[in-house]
Amino acid sequence: MEGYINVVENRIDSLVQITIKERKENGLGCLFLNFSKPNHLDCAYISITSDDFPEHLNEYKERMKTVPSSIIFFYVFDDKDNKMIEMDLDKNSKFFESETKK
C-alpha cells in the first residue's frame, strides 16, 4: 500500500482537481483509486447518492456529511488491500487536530 500512497502523493494536485470538479457536478463523494492492474491506475469519482457507492463504505457516507466541506476523500485499493485517505484542502483548518483530541 505504501507504494500506492507514493503515487497518490506524486499526483495529488491532479487528483484534487478531479475531485473538486466531480464534487461540483455530482455532489459529495469519493475518488476511488484502483491499483488492481499492475503499473496502472484507474480512478473514478462516485457520489454518496449513487447506487454504485460500495455498501461496505457506508460509514464514510455519514462521515462525508458531517465533516467540513474542505475535506475530500480518496479510497485507494488493489486486490488485496485498501485505505481511505481524508485530506483537508483548508490549510488553516484545525479539524484533524481537534478531532485527534476527542
Produce the secondary structure layout.
Blueprint: H1 2-10, H2 12-26, E1 29-34, E2 42-47, H3 58-66, E3 71-77, E4 82-88, H4 95-101
Mean pLDDT: 92
Radius of gyration over C-alpha positions, nearest whole angstrom: 14 Å
Helicity level, as a percent range? 25-40%
Order of helices and strands: HHEEHEEH
Cα end-to-end separation: 28 Å
What is the tally of helical segments? 4
Question: What spatial form do the alpha-carbon principal axes imply?
Answer: globular
Let me know the largest β-sheet. 4 strands, mixed
**How many structural domains can be distinguished in the coordinates?**
1
What does this structure look like?
This protein is α+β, with helices and mostly antiparallel strands and 102 residues long. The protein has one domain (2-101). It contains four helices and four strands. It has helices spanning 2-10, 12-26, 58-66, 95-101, and strands at residues 29-34, 42-47, 71-77, 82-88. It has a four-stranded mixed sheet with strand order 2-1-3-4, covered by helices on one side. The longest helix has 15 residues, at 12-26. The chain is globular and about 40 Å long.
